[in-house]
TrEMBL record:
Entry similarity comment: Belongs to the iron-sulfur cluster assembly SufBD family.
Organism: Acetobacter aceti
Name of the protein described by the UniProt record: ABC transporter permease
Pfam families: SUFBD_core, SufBD_N
Example GO biological process: iron-sulfur cluster assembly
SUF system FeS cluster assembly SufBD core domain: residues covered: 168-397
Stretches assigned to the SUF system FeS cluster assembly SufBD N-terminal domain: 20-158
Top-level taxon of origin: Bacteria
Signal peptide: none
Length: 433
């Protein structure tokens, strides 16, 4: 008997695969999808982001094998020798599957890594019954990585590369990752999402982070999917007493991208940072959505997101801070800022505060503007060409947000990437001028 019947509208691109899922978790997720379908703009959380890019297509599973030589060459370009993260231990996935032959074998002491195939545990943090894309991931997850850090271990930095390689259009992969930090442990991980000769694929990862008492996880993500790809990522973070989840996402690629974070502080004196930046052009849509829950007293949350939008690109920021009744002495702050470089660019911002405690300090704000004419004139008067002057101002606007990343190595990697992308876009603009 099929796991879903009848097929709900919106699930046609995955109907054949969903009808053949096995296992209780996967069947339950497919059943949830059958009841709700994929999110549409009628769903409040997806009001500004439309999944029409998936309609009219049939997504097949990404091929299991890959060209090892091509993958090595792609990695050399993604992590060139002058990159500050090139020398760090790495874990690599190709088309959503863990690739041991491309990954480091000498992980730092105290760190263990297994693939989702080896240990297919969906965990308890994700909510496939409430989140449509998480339900799709749960039903179709093929692989992923499970990283554990022993209590008291200070790991340093680790690289996680997700590479789409040589895929045809209309393939999808749904990796399922988890990171678990023991008490007092710390880890800085940089997730690099990239592609090489890939078509119009769908990448739908889910990451669950469990951070024990006094542990600290820094999670930096650089998203550079193929220009026709769709990237829909969901992150769950569960933070214990005096622990911290410090994250930053840099959105650069794909025609449609969404980075959604659900962070819950259930121990006192915990901290969450969900910062980010998006640099969008052409008709790209980039969405950063977060739900930060203060479930204990004396916790701190910070969120600063900056967007630079040109051509007909559009950015979405949705940030919700939920303060439960028990969470007295909460300190929460949100800020979303957008720089519009074109009259056709658009920003949709929806900050939310939902507060049930009475002794809190919470605020949010948003600004939208263009490049400062006086600053531009000053640079031009010093003989700097117009394109370079604009690049300098854009880079300065975004780097202020990158400075929020405390880990120096990961911060340097972000700055390197930003500088490279801005140079490439200026160069491309000059060629077409």
């Amino acid at each position: 008997m099929n796991a879903i019947a009848p097929i709900t509208q919106g699930l046609e691109p995955f109907a054949a695969r969903l009808s053949d899922v096995k296992g209780e978790d996967r069947k339950a997720a497919a059943g949830a999808l059958a009841r709700t379908g994929l999110p549409t703009p009628r769903v409040e959380a997806w009001h500004y982001t439309n999944l029409r890019a998936l309609s009219g297509r049939v997504f097949s599973d990404a091929p299991a094998g890959f060209d090892e030589t091509a993958a090595q060459a792609a990695l050399a370009r993604i992590l060139p020798p002058d990159s500050v993260v090139a020398v760090l231990p790495r874990l690599v996935l190709v088309n959503g599957r863990f690739a041991p032959t491309l990954s480091s074998t000498d992980l730092p002491e105290g760190v263990t890594c297994t693939s989702f195939v080896q240990s297919p545990d969906f965990g308890i943090l994700a909510s496939p019954d409430r989140e449509g894309m998480v339900a799709l991931n749960t039903a179709l997850a093929g692989d992923g990585v499970r990283i554990s850090v022993a209590p008291g271990t200070q790991v340093g930095q680790l690289v996680l590369v997700s590479l789409a390689l040589g895929t045809d259009s209309d393939v999808s992969f749904h990796p399922r990752h988890s990171i678990t930090l023991g008490e007092g442990a710390s880890l800085s991980i940089i997730e690099i999402v990239a592609s090489e000769n890939a078509g119009a694929y769908l990448h739908n990862p889910v990451l669950s982070c469990t951070i024990a008492e006094k542990a600290h996880l820094t999670h930096v993500k650089i998203q550079r999917e193929a220009e026709n790809a769709v990237h829909l990522a969901t992150v769950y973070a569960d933070i214990a007493v005096r622990a911290a989840y410090d994250s930053f996402t840099l959105g650069l690629g794909s025609v449609l991208a969404r980075h959604e974070v659900h962070a819950t502080m259930h121990g006192d004196h915990a901290a969450v940072h969900v910062n980010g930046a998006q640099l969008l052009a052409a008709s790209q849509v980039g969405d950063i959505t977060s739900v930060i829950t203060h479930g204990a007293p004396d916790c701190v949350s910070r969120q600063t997101v900056r967007n630079v939008l040109s051509d007909r690109s559009r950015a979405v920021f949705q940030g919700k801070v939920l303060v439960e009744r028990v969470a007295q002495k909460t300190d929460g702050y949100q800020m979303n800022q957008a720089l519009l470089l074109s009259p056709s660019a658009e920003i949709n911002a929806k900050p939310e505060l939902e507060i049930y405690a009475d002794d809190v300090k919470c605020s949010h704000g948003a600004t939208v503007g263009a490049l400062d004419d006086d600053q531009l004139f000053y640079l031009r008067s010093r003989g700097i060409p117009d394109d370079q002057a604009r690049q300098m101002l854009v880079e300065a606007f975004l780097v202020e947000t990158v400075e929020l990343v405390e880990d120096e190595t990961l911060r340097a990697a972000l700055n390197q990437t930003l500088a490279t992308v801005l140079r490439q876009r200026i160069g491309a603009a000059e060629k077409t001028a």
